[in-house]
Amino acid sequence: MEVKYKKEFYILKAKNRKIESEAPAVRVTMLNGESKVIGMMAPKIQVMITLPNIKDYNNGLHDILEKSSSKVLPYIITSSSQDTIAKVQKAFGLDSGFISNDFNKFSLKFGVNLNETIVAKSIYIIDKEGVIKYKNIPNNCEHSFDLDEFESSLQEVIDFKVKGHTHENWMGA
Prior knowledge:
By secondary structure, the protein is of the alpha+beta class. The protein has helices spanning about 60-65, 80-90, 105-110, 145-160, 165-170; strands spanning about 1-5, 10, 25-30, 35-40, 45-50, 70-80, 100, 115, 120, 120-125, 130-135.
């Protein structure tokens, strides 16, 4: 896939992750210094947001994540500098345990690596079982995400109930 960022075109490197495939597990160092393995099975739905410039994090995205905060672990992976991250973090009250600019391994495993210094813009929704349920990688990193599509997809994953067996099926009737 070709992606444009600041008038240059890049070919995404490494994996092309597909919807309904298993998400890769990747170790990432968060801003608070904590090392986390993210992307696999988890007690909550994971939302992985990659931003070449964290200034693209906006009120719309923040509001969607805030509405579902009890059911979602949101991770922001960016190629922005510590200073730029600190400004956005302060403006939105973001937890440093869920933000990282240790993006290289993550971007290669999730197929959003533009080069060694830049991550592509993307959103992934990963269910509790570690399966990718939604993926959005704009072909121009300077374009906004489709927040309506993201919000409805996130709500679908939140509302999904695993159907268990019925008594009749269990009894073999």
